[in-house]
């Protein structure tokens, strides 16, 4: 036998190397948690640098640069907390992966904020607190305090896994800081009444629209003898309505006021809808080949409209909620005379870009924390229900953005989810079409009909988690007073230290 090769080992050295390896693994585990905050800090620094390029030679440059940092921080918090509503339904329905949802949302958030975000920014920056009645020397500090208070509250809420309204936070903070600075007189209470009424009605409208869409889907597709044939007919129509409505909104946003009459805009939307319908038909027909006549097969056919509605909702959210980050910054920029816009309240492009990219950065870094709550834990969503939620939320937010109302995307999205869940509970018990369909299936398979469940069993089978409903409502109620109080305190501290 050939001699065994001699293996030289140094046990002490091996032990030391094992310790170093374990220490490196532990360091990597700890440092992994610091990557996202580190990237966020880098973005805040870039926002300051970006703002400094535009204002470095102007009076008040230091204030604007500091406000840009707070606006970038606020935008990241919006992305972490609020944008989850856009893609939560799609992820909960397993129509797309988390990575796909984050990328799609980030792209369309930037597009919505930069293309169509100006109208709501004007409301936040100049309509809540009358800038004419506020001394210019104080306006910047009011908006700084509002930004810091809203961002801190949203950051805390995100850490607590509570999907609060970023719109509530910034509006409450602007009011609180404004009252602390100059009293209640400059607050435009008429605008506040309009905004508050929209906060109450928008989730109800979103829930009703989502429930109505789900009723149509159940009636026209799900409870039909040939589900696949019904889906081949109606899914392209759903895509056409979505594309036509979105294009009509884009024409309204991008064209000068009054350039196109309402009839022309409606005809443009109908034309784009017809083109989309013609394009979607062959795609749906191709997807429908060889699919079994089962509800699970409908998931495949609803994937395309669900992804489209999630992208549309991200665009709408960027158009509406970018104001929560850059509205105060826009007011500060104009208060020190370095606007670059055409009048007060009209945000410069560089201000919009800080908000748009900040939302996307926050979404990519911290977004997955709340996606599962909205998409999975309130009520069970499949692609059909999720499509109704996303489409309802998108159209409600788009109309609000067009009107210049800073509504809460969180309210509308969660309201739509609850609307779908409560409608399912009602429909399950009272729909004659569903009962007839279930009985026919039971007879065809020779299955005994189930006995009527008792009260306790019915309550156990609720399709909406009441605990989440009460928790979210409570978070909504306290957001405005908490952010207003925090903003007032921060303003008094800033005033004492710097003014």
UniProtKB/TrEMBL annotation:
<feature type="transmembrane region" description="Helical">
    <location>
        <begin position="169"/>
        <end position="187"/>
    </location>
</feature>
<dbReference type="InterPro" id="IPR001204">
    <property type="entry name" value="Phos_transporter"/>
</dbReference>
<feature type="transmembrane region" description="Helical">
    <location>
        <begin position="61"/>
        <end position="80"/>
    </location>
</feature>
<feature type="transmembrane region" description="Helical">
    <location>
        <begin position="349"/>
        <end position="371"/>
    </location>
</feature>
<dbReference type="Pfam" id="PF01384">
    <property type="entry name" value="PHO4"/>
</dbReference>
<feature type="transmembrane region" description="Helical">
    <location>
        <begin position="34"/>
        <end position="55"/>
    </location>
</feature>
<feature type="transmembrane region" description="Helical">
    <location>
        <begin position="260"/>
        <end position="280"/>
    </location>
</feature>
<feature type="transmembrane region" description="Helical">
    <location>
        <begin position="409"/>
        <end position="427"/>
    </location>
</feature>
<keyword id="KW-0813">Transport</keyword>
<feature type="transmembrane region" description="Helical">
    <location>
        <begin position="300"/>
        <end position="319"/>
    </location>
</feature>
<comment type="similarity">
    <text>Belongs to the inorganic phosphate transporter (PiT) (TC 2.A.20) family.</text>
</comment>
<keyword id="KW-0812">Transmembrane</keyword>
<feature type="transmembrane region" description="Helical">
    <location>
        <begin position="138"/>
        <end position="157"/>
    </location>
</feature>
<feature type="transmembrane region" description="Helical">
    <location>
        <begin position="469"/>
        <end position="494"/>
    </location>
</feature>
<feature type="transmembrane region" description="Helical">
    <location>
        <begin position="233"/>
        <end position="254"/>
    </location>
</feature>
<feature type="transmembrane region" description="Helical">
    <location>
        <begin position="383"/>
        <end position="403"/>
    </location>
</feature>
<keyword id="KW-1133">Transmembrane helix</keyword>
<keyword id="KW-0592">Phosphate transport</keyword>
<feature type="transmembrane region" description="Helical">
    <location>
        <begin position="101"/>
        <end position="118"/>
    </location>
</feature>
<feature type="transmembrane region" description="Helical">
    <location>
        <begin position="199"/>
        <end position="221"/>
    </location>
</feature>
<keyword id="KW-0472">Membrane</keyword>
<protein>
    <recommendedName>
        <fullName>Phosphate transporter</fullName>
    </recommendedName>
</protein>
């Amino acid at each position: 036998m050939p001699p065994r090769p001699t293996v030289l080992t140094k046990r002490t050295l091996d032990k030391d190397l094992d310790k170093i390896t374990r220490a490196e693994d532990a360091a990597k585990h700890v440092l992994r948690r610091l990557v996202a905050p580190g990237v966020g800090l880098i973005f805040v620094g870039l926002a300051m640098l970006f703002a400094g390029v535009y204002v470095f030679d102007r009076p008040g440059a230091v204030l604007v640069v500091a406000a840009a940092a707070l606006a970038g921080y606020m935008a990241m918090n919006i992305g972490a907390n609020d944008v989850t509503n856009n893609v939560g339904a799609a992820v909960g329905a397993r129509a797309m992966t988390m990575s796909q949802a984050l990328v799609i949302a980030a792209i369309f958030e930037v597009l919505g904020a930069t293309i169509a975000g100006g109208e709501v920014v004007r409301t936040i920056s100049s309509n809540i607190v009358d800038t004419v009645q506020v001394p210019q020397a104080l306006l910047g500090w009011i908006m700084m305090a509002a930004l810091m208070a809203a961002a801190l509250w949203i950051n805390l809420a995100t850490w607590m896994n509570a999907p609060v309204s970023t719109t509530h936070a910034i509006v409450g903070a602007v009011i609180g800081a404004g009252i602390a600075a100059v009293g209640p007189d400059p607050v435009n209470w008429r605008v506040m009444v309009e905004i508050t009424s929209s906060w109450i009605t928008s989730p109800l409208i979103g829930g009703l629209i989502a429930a109505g869409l789900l009723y149509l889907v159940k009636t026209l597709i799900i409870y039909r003898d040939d589900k696949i044939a019904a889906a081949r007919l109606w899914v392209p129509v759903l895509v056409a309505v979505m594309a036509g409505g979105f294009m009509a909104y884009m024409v309204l946003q991008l064209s000068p006021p009054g350039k196109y009459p309402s009839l022309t805009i409606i005809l443009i939307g109908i034309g784009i809808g017809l083109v989309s319908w013609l394009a979607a038909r062959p795609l749906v027909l191709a997807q429908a080949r060889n699919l079994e006549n089962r509800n699970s097969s409908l998931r495949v056919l609803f994937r395309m409209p669900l992804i489209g509605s999630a992208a549309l909702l991200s665009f709408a959210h960027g158009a509406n909620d970018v104001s929560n980050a850059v509205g105060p910054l826009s007011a500060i920029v104009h208060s020190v005379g370095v606007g670059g816009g055409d009048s007060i309240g009209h945000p410069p492009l560089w201000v919009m870009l800080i908000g748009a990219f900040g939302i996307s950065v926050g979404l990519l870094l911290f977004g997955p924390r709340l996606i599962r709550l909205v998409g999975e834990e309130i009520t069970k969503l499949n692609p059909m229900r999720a499509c109704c939620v996303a489409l309802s939320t998108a159209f409600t937010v788009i109309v609000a953005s067009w009107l210049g109302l800073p509504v809460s995307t969180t309210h509308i999205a969660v309201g739509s989810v609850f609307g779908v869940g409560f409608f399912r509970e009602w429909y399950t018990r009272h729909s004659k079409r569903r009962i007839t369909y279930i009985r026919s299936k039971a007879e065809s398979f020779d299955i005994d009909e189930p006995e009527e469940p008792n009260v306790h069993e019915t309550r156990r089978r609720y399709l909406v988690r009441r605990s989440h409903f009460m928790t979210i409502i409570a978070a909504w109620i306290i957001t405005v007073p908490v952010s207003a109080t925090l903003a007032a305190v921060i303003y008094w501290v800033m005033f004492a230290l710097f003014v």
